[in-house]
Amino acid sequence: MTVHLVDEGVDTGGILYQDTVSFVPSDNITTYQYVQMATALPLFIRSIEDALRNQLILKKVDLPSRKWFPPTLLSYFNNGLARGVW
What we know:
Layout: E1 2-4, E2 15-18, H1 32-52, H2 73-82
Antiparallel strand pairs: 1-2
C-alpha cells in the first residue's frame, strides 16, 4: 500500500508512506478491499497529520507514468482458478 502526493502523472507523485498488505488464506475477492483499507487508513491519517504540521517528507519516484485498470471479473476467476485460490 502506497500513499503519495498527486501530481500531473499517474502514480508519479512523491511517496509519503508505504506498508505491506498482509492477506490470509481465507481472504478472497470480497475481503481484499477491506484488508487493503485497514492497512491504508493509518497511512492516510499520518499523511494528513504531517501535512497539517507542514512536515511531509517525500521519497522521489522515478518511474514512468502508467495507468493501471482494475481486473475484469473474468480475470479474477481465471487467476483464482489457475493459482488455486478457489
